[in-house]
Amino acid sequence: MKAVLLCAGYATRLRPLTDRVPKQLLPVGGRPLLDWILDKVREVEDVDQVHLVTNSYFADQFRAWAEPHGVAVHDDGTRTNEDRLGAVGDLRLTIARAGLDDDLIVLAGDNLFDFSLAAFVDFARSHGTASALAVYDCGDLELATHMGIVELDETDRVVFFVEKPSDPPSTLASTATYVFPREHVPLVERYLGQGHPPDNIGSFLGWLSRQKPVYGYRFEGSWYDIGNHAQLLEADNRMRALVGLPPREAYSLG
């Protein structure tokens, strides 16, 4: 099994913090955000390679972080938010460049969560040749209008997936954490070849769920989708509490 970390965005909502430092390397709880995510990946004993895809603007910083961790870095060649490849485009690039022909764990590099990735992989494999996504009940229909929302049947199979719905069918939010069996990996190329949008991997999951079985892994505990300054501060203080650091009233790089 291989892991792919999606880190090619430009985090415009977090500027000026992200003018010179990529969001995924901002300190959270005294460590780069990616350190916490890599800890989760290391829980999965079957993972024998970790790949990270980023843009040219931040590639050198990611290479410096990745070298001691044994993570392969792939530069997608973009330098601005306007010419980005999108999450699905970057996933296709990584699959092709690294020649990935294996089961994949795919994670956004800006999500923090409590659940065990090993348990998530076991859940996915218990359903045979099926993909899976981790879902979190946000408990608020208004909040759900800002998220990728799924509807599951009684077996937890995804029957509906929609991005930022005006009338959410549920409050189950996708957390940008996925497992794809090797049989489904070529479908990334098919999806893009049919002209579907490359920006949001949730759109690919919605399409995939109409082609192949996709299951939702429900979890509880904490989940942080770090997209703005308030979410960054909340996640920072949560992780600082875990390691015994005092809380902060305002976020800073120091």
* Corresponding CATH superfamily: Spore Coat Polysaccharide Biosynthesis Protein SpsA, Chain A
Q: Helix-strand pattern, N to C?
A: EEEHEHEHEEHEHEEEHHEEH
Q: Please state the CA-atom Rg, rounded to the nearest Å.
A: 17 Å
Query: What structural class do the secondary elements suggest?
Result: alpha/beta
Fraction of residues in H or I helices? 25-40%
Proportion in β-strands:
15-25%
Counted up, domains total 1
How many DSSP H or I helices?
Answer: 8
**What is the strand tally?**
13
The CATH class, by name, is Alpha Beta
Any idea what the shape is? globular
Reported by name, the CATH topology is Spore Coat Polysaccharide Biosynthesis Protein SpsA, Chain A
CATH architecture: Alpha-Beta Complex
* Termini separation: 36 Å
